[in-house]
């Protein structure tokens, strides 16, 4: 072997043995595996390999010389890189490939092969030199990157598909919701509406989307109070709840609409949007009004004959005082009792009718609040032979309010406490004055009320599921109590636990016009 010439190896008879040994030592010192094949021989056999090649492949030199390089691929022959190498050998050109090779023990390794032809003076390819490096770690890293990239692509595709499906799913829900929906931008411009809105108000999307809410139709939503509520949604995040709009709408006439608005709690392009749900409650309110009218008429019509019956029963009671017939007196007594119950029920129905029509009247005057409580408790205690009512605390104030109505509230709460605690004989009534409010708390140790039903017990005609069969009633007493307390600008609420009893409390605001009996300032 002699010197490198024009970047290629060539041999001559003048090559000294010393130069050959130096070149061999240099090749053996290389960290890359190096082989030389003789292209003049059949099957282009390996005629030289350095020490690094032996280390890379695990084969001894004696097992390498004379073999074609393909022996390193074993049975893994169907590789694109092999075709690239074959073309380079046939054409006497350079080639760079990554190819799968196998060590003597069968371990796979990736070989980065640089192959170049060695030509003689006549430009004939006599030899090929191959420089090889084990790049298994690099290929593993590349495969991991490709794998991770593929997984990421798959996840992105799956995520995109999920988002598209979710968007379609949500859109289908929005379109099938039986309420009109409007999505507003932060400046209250209509971004989108659902089909129900279009159909309900008989408008087109062109007439709606992109317009200010207050410019729609004939200005039906341009209500200062509604505008104030909507403009407070973004800075305070307080929703608009059950806002009623009665209006003569274009195309559909006079309607009563119920609005609920909420801020959309999302990020990105949907951040700070407002969703308005509009429900047409015209027919529902008309039905409720007819029910209330029927209730009022029926109650009044029943009141007159019942008053007559009550009078006759009282006459009969006086006439039979001297009779010795115990069964007759007992029967008349029961009749009188049930007539009184019916009279109270009709009275409550009339109260409900007045409340619903807004005709409940308050006759306010100052009265001794503690005396009213004591007299009411005494009256209930006299009629109950089963329970003991214990009063604690006092207010010491003259309260300006409707004494008869507040007495009705206390009576109802005490009657309920007795009714719903048949196995516990003590009822507590606590009075106090707190920061300008009278507070009354009625506590029993009875059946209690489940958490999810506590807010509903003040609804008209609502009755707790667990007591409907065991305890009679129509579910209007607490509705009346809540209305009376509310008309005094007070609050009525309940705290309860099933099986452990309930505490019904109400507060009433004091006024500075009526000083307390002990000369105080009514708790202010």
Automatic annotation (TrEMBL):
<keyword id="KW-0902">Two-component regulatory system</keyword>
<dbReference type="InterPro" id="IPR036097">
    <property type="entry name" value="HisK_dim/P_sf"/>
</dbReference>
<dbReference type="Pfam" id="PF00512">
    <property type="entry name" value="HisKA"/>
</dbReference>
<feature type="domain" description="PAC">
    <location>
        <begin position="95"/>
        <end position="147"/>
    </location>
</feature>
<dbReference type="Pfam" id="PF08448">
    <property type="entry name" value="PAS_4"/>
</dbReference>
<protein>
    <recommendedName>
        <fullName>histidine kinase</fullName>
        <ecNumber>2.7.13.3</ecNumber>
    </recommendedName>
</protein>
<keyword id="KW-0067">ATP-binding</keyword>
<dbReference type="GO" id="GO:0000155">
    <property type="term" value="F:phosphorelay sensor kinase activity"/>
</dbReference>
<dbReference type="InterPro" id="IPR003594">
    <property type="entry name" value="HATPase_dom"/>
</dbReference>
<dbReference type="GO" id="GO:0000156">
    <property type="term" value="F:phosphorelay response regulator activity"/>
</dbReference>
<dbReference type="GO" id="GO:0007234">
    <property type="term" value="P:osmosensory signaling via phosphorelay pathway"/>
</dbReference>
<keyword id="KW-0808">Transferase</keyword>
<dbReference type="InterPro" id="IPR050351">
    <property type="entry name" value="BphY/WalK/GraS-like"/>
</dbReference>
<dbReference type="Pfam" id="PF02518">
    <property type="entry name" value="HATPase_c"/>
</dbReference>
<keyword id="KW-0472">Membrane</keyword>
<dbReference type="InterPro" id="IPR000014">
    <property type="entry name" value="PAS"/>
</dbReference>
<keyword id="KW-0547">Nucleotide-binding</keyword>
<dbReference type="InterPro" id="IPR035965">
    <property type="entry name" value="PAS-like_dom_sf"/>
</dbReference>
<keyword id="KW-1133">Transmembrane helix</keyword>
<feature type="domain" description="PAS">
    <location>
        <begin position="19"/>
        <end position="92"/>
    </location>
</feature>
<dbReference type="InterPro" id="IPR004358">
    <property type="entry name" value="Sig_transdc_His_kin-like_C"/>
</dbReference>
<dbReference type="InterPro" id="IPR036890">
    <property type="entry name" value="HATPase_C_sf"/>
</dbReference>
<dbReference type="GO" id="GO:0016020">
    <property type="term" value="C:membrane"/>
</dbReference>
<dbReference type="InterPro" id="IPR000700">
    <property type="entry name" value="PAS-assoc_C"/>
</dbReference>
<dbReference type="GO" id="GO:0030295">
    <property type="term" value="F:protein kinase activator activity"/>
</dbReference>
<dbReference type="GO" id="GO:0005524">
    <property type="term" value="F:ATP binding"/>
</dbReference>
<keyword id="KW-0597">Phosphoprotein</keyword>
<feature type="domain" description="Histidine kinase">
    <location>
        <begin position="297"/>
        <end position="512"/>
    </location>
</feature>
<dbReference type="InterPro" id="IPR003661">
    <property type="entry name" value="HisK_dim/P_dom"/>
</dbReference>
<dbReference type="Pfam" id="PF13426">
    <property type="entry name" value="PAS_9"/>
</dbReference>
<dbReference type="InterPro" id="IPR001610">
    <property type="entry name" value="PAC"/>
</dbReference>
<keyword id="KW-0812">Transmembrane</keyword>
<keyword id="KW-0418">Kinase</keyword>
<dbReference type="InterPro" id="IPR005467">
    <property type="entry name" value="His_kinase_dom"/>
</dbReference>
<dbReference type="InterPro" id="IPR013656">
    <property type="entry name" value="PAS_4"/>
</dbReference>
């Amino acid at each position: 072997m002699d010197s490198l010439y024009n970047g290629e190896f060539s041999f001559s008879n003048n090559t000294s043995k010393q130069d050959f040994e130096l070149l061999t030592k240099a090749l053996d010192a290389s960290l890359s595996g190096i082989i030389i094949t003789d292209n003049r021989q059949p099957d282009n056999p390996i005629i030289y390999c350095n020490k690094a090649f032996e280390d890379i492949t695990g084969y001894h030199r004696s097992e390498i010389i004379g073999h074609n390089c393909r022996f390193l691929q074993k049975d893994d022959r169907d590789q694109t890189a092999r075709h690239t190498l074959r073309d380079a050998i046939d054409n006497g050109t350079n080639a760079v490939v990554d190819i799968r090779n196998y060590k003597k023990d069968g371990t796979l390794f990736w070989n980065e092969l640089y192959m170049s032809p060695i030509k003689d003076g006549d430009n004939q390819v006599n030899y090929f030199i191959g420089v090889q490096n084990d790049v298994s770690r690099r290929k593993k890293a590349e495969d991991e990157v490709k794998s991770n990239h593929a997984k990421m692509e798959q996840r992105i595709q799956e995520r995109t598909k999920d988002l598209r499906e979710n968007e379609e799913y949500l859109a289908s829900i929005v379109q099938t919701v039986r309420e009109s929906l409007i999505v507003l931008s932060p400046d209250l411009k209509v971004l989108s509406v659902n089909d129900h809105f279009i159909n309900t108000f008989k408008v087109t999307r062109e007439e709606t989307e992109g317009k200010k809410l207050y410019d729609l139709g004939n200005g039906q939503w341009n209500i200062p109070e509604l505008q104030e509520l909507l403009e407070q949604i973004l800075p305070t995040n307080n929703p608009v709840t059950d806002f009623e709009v009665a209006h003569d709408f274009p195309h559909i006439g006079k309607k009563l609409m119920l609005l609920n608005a909420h801020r959309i709690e999302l990020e990105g392009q949907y951040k700070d949007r407002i969703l308005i749900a509009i429900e047409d409650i015209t027919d529902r309110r008309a039905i409720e009004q007819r029910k209330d009218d029927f209730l009022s008429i029926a109650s009044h019509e029943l009141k007159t004959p019942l008053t007559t019956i009550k009078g006759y029963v009282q006459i009969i009671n006086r006439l039979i005082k001297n009779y010795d017939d115990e069964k007759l007196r007992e029967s008349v007594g029961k009749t009188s009792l049930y007539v009184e119950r019916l009279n109270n029920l009709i009275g409550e129905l009339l109260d409900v009718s007045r409340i619903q029509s807004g005709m409940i009247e308050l006759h306010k005057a100052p009265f001794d609040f503690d005396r009213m409580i004591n007299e009411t408790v005494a009256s209930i205690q006299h009629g109950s032979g089963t329970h003991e009512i214990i009063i604690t605390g006092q207010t010491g104030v003259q309260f300006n309010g409707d004494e008869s109505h507040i007495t009705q509230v206390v009576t109802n709460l005490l009657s309920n406490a007795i009714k719903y605690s048949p196995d516990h004989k003590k009822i507590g009534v606590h009075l106090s004055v707190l920061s300008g409010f009278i507070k009354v708390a009625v506590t029993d140790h009875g059946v209690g009320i489940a958490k999810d039903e506590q807010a509903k017990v003040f609804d008209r005609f609502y009755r707790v599921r667990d007591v409907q069969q065991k305890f009679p009633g129509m579910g209007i007493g607490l509705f009346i109590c809540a209305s009376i307390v509310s008309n005094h600008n007070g609050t009525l609420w309940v705290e309860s636990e099933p099986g452990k009893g309930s505490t019904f409390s109400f507060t009433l605001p004091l006024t500075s016009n009526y000083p307390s009996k002990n000369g105080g300032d009514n708790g202010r």
